[in-house]
Amino acid sequence: MPPPVPATASPDEARERSSEVILGFDAAKVMVRIGTLAEKHSGRDEAFRSAMAQLLKSELVHAREVAQTELLAERHGRRTAERLCALHDAIIRILYNAATWYLYRSPTPSDSERMSIVATGGYGRGLMAPESDIDLLFVLPYKQTAWGEQVAEVILYCLWDMGLKVGHATRTVSECIRHALGDMTIRTAILESRYLIGDLALYTELIERFDKEVVQGTASEFVAAKLAEREERLTRAGQSRYLVEPNIKDGKGGLRDLHTLFWIAKYVYRVRDTRELVKRNVFDAAEYRTFRRCEDFLWSVRCNMHFLTGRAEERLSFDIQREIAQRLGYTSHPGMQDVERFMKHYFMVARQVGGLTAILCAKLEEQEAKPAPMLNRVMERLRPHKRRGKIAGTEDFIVDNARINLAAPNVFKHDPVSLIRIFRLAQKNNLDFHPDAMRAVTRSLNLITPQVRENAEANRLFVEILTSPNAETVLRRMNETGVLGQFIRTFGKIVSMMQFNMYHHYTVDEHLIRCVGILQEIEAGTNEEFVLANDLFRKIRLDHRAALYMAVFLHDIAKGRPEDHSIAGAKAARRLCPRFGFNSADTELIAWLIREHLTMSTVAQSRDLSDRKTIENFAAVVQSVEQMKLLTILTTADIRGVGPGVWNGWKAQLLRTLYYETEPALTGGFSEVNRARRVDAALAEFRNAFTEWPEADVEAYLGRQYPAYWLKVELPQKIRHARFIKNADMSGKKIAIEVGFDESRAVTELTVLAPDHPWLLSIVAGACAANGANIVDAQIYTTTDGLALDTIAISREYDRNEDEARRAARIGELIEQVLEGKVRLPEVMARRTQSRAKTKVFVVEPEVVVNNQWSEVYTVIEVSGLDRPGLLYQLTTAISKLSLNIGSAHVATFGERVRDVFYVTDLMGAQITAPTRQAAIKRALVHLLSNADPTRGAA
């Protein structure tokens, strides 16, 4: 930092103190040019200020270009942030010098004509992202004067004219202290303050009074407030640090967590630099290096994000992840894309930030700087009242402040199996983990050798952890310390691995751990979302319980490999399970569950469950009722573990239908009698639940739906449909549309009732696309009196339900106009906008399967490819143009990937058997999927 420049500094003195060249910005030369501008515009202050702002803006644009070039070459974000901060420092000093010399020079200033310009907040830390705000504090000795107000205005208006975002405050020293005492945000801003220019004595007075009157004796208050603030921030951003579109600044494990560490350290230990935390024995040298590595990486990502988007973008979304990865030099490897390798690194850094947070909290607790641990609130509710003492059955571990800790520093070296045992003891005794113990665990990972991995006691302890209460929390701590990946090397390969798609919300390891937690919910039977799975868990063989837990834990263990992960995962299970104590039969069962873990979901969502062939084929795969029970439970946990809103009542009902349709086929052959009984049971359930109509009306309505409807649709939706159809009948309209909102899935549901028509699905899909609505799934039924009842789920466009309802009304109007011949849909489609930019970052290889083995009546066409608005319309239009009748359609979207299945016949009602015609169908649909123009192929 240059020495302070007094308010009366001459331009020559200012140039001498501003000799540094930053990012091509030569402050001394700029001052000379500003002097020339001052002479040119002498006496015209407004013109001079405008010319000065334009000059500095031009220089700033060039400097930012240099900064981006250097960032791409060096890939060192922290250095870029430091340079950008120094650049803005230089600009502010130039503005101050110009204002106090050329505009409002005071040769003999009074004591009140003094000012200290101070950087606060993030700018005060000396690090600045390309699009970050500038936070300035103008410190005055007494009340505001005309001179101080004029100088501040020149600086602020010039910065605003340059296009910079500036936050500012003008206060006396006493006002700063008073506000800091009452507002923790202002206290934090002053804590990070940094002197820029002006009266140094004012800044010194501010810091001395701040330390004495605000900081002294208030460490516990500040720490508690900052940790509470962190909890609130993480709740807003998403508590998991393994979200696949993380917030680089405010998310868990992001830059704000590092800032919080530094705030607390500065406040409690009164340090000015993180290096000093090593001297204070808060971090050791290795941990400090980790701190700097994490900070450097996160700053590199953030600076690149700002430069790439041209705005203060903090969310690392899918549409920029790949380009950021390439900017940082990541390359693709077999089984992993460049973007997936980059995001794996990001999540490893986020986990390390979490470890540093725990270390600092432990140190603070030792010094009683905070009253109680704020870590692991799940364990807090479960732990016993005992605060200190021994743990029964072990001499190696103790209870320390209601958390497990080491009795001696050499516990793990003496017996490396204790690296697994500590987690089992904590789980068994409902203890949280002391950060010092976790620190020791992390430092002892090299003790987990092949001998430890094959140790019978270690593997027995692990299986107990996996199958005991609170397994999710304990497994997550094992993962965050590195034990899980070191003990199970195959698991280590998927730690922090993301899947570059819009379907999965979490990294692979986090998904597996969450699935174990969901399986425990199913076993407990406490969550009504999982009615079937809850019931089936009580009925599985007791000796299969551990095998089911292991299958859930391992089902995605082989993600990221070139080979299909289900097949590779089954092979990995055959290698691992004997080590965990499973016999050959259970090992094969686990391997089978992993190999088939996607089968039930695929069949339920993409096949006609009323088709006897579907059920027979599925029965041939599952082979026994016991295996189907286990697969149903695994499938439920897997879908629910993908992320919020993925599991819903419709999918639950499809799984129930598939299970109960297949059960008789496994116990004694497919039985129409048995199926009729289940239909009767569904009808009875509806009668009992729906009592608002006269009995005669109910009975008449029951006959309007085919048997398959009563088996596939969940009860609440059946009731909604009944009310909807009656209201439509009473209105006398040919077409009726009802709008619903599923906030858990962020979709709007359109239920369409219209006369059945061969092109109706195509028309509905086209009307949605023409209004910019992207279909994510569809449920399609036909009534016995010739009406189509279609429920279409579309992605939300608006936050307010009222706006979504108006969009739905426009879709309904268009459907009616097309059916009445008033509008030609292809013309409307030709005018619609192109597909969403977000899906353009993904590549999904188009695939079309034409199959006659999945149905005895229909040819089944399965289409898979990159989703885009209007795709369903294009597909149904193309199928109709191929002279095919669509008997039923099953529409599902998995993030950016669509899987649509159509049951079709030729115009005579027969299957498509000619190989040449099958090839033509496949060729036409693959061409359509590969063509990005939504209007091509439209009728």
From TrEMBL:
Q: Which InterPro entries match?
A: ACT-like_dom_sf, ACT_dom, HD/PDEase_dom, HD_domain, NT_sf, PII_UdlTrfase/GS_AdlTrfase, Polymerase_NTP_transf_dom, UTase/UR
Single Gene Ontology MF annotation: [protein-PII] uridylyltransferase activity
Protein's name in the database: Bifunctional uridylyltransferase/uridylyl-removing enzyme
Biological process (GO) annotations? regulation of nitrogen utilization
Which Pfam families does its entry note? ACT, GlnD_UR_UTase, HD, NTP_transf_2
| The encoding gene | glnD
Matching entries from NCBIfam families are given as: PRK05092.1, UTase_glnD
List each copy of the ACT domain by range. Answer: 749-831, 860-936
Activity regulation, per record: Uridylyltransferase (UTase) activity is inhibited by glutamine, while glutamine activates uridylyl-removing (UR) activity.
Q: What HAMAP family does its record include? A: PII_uridylyl_transf (MF_00277)
Ranges in coiled-coil conformation:
none
Recorded E.C. number(s)?
2.7.7.59, 3.1.4.-
**Organism listed in the record:** Afipia carboxidovorans (strain ATCC 49405 / DSM 1227 / KCTC 32145 / OM5)
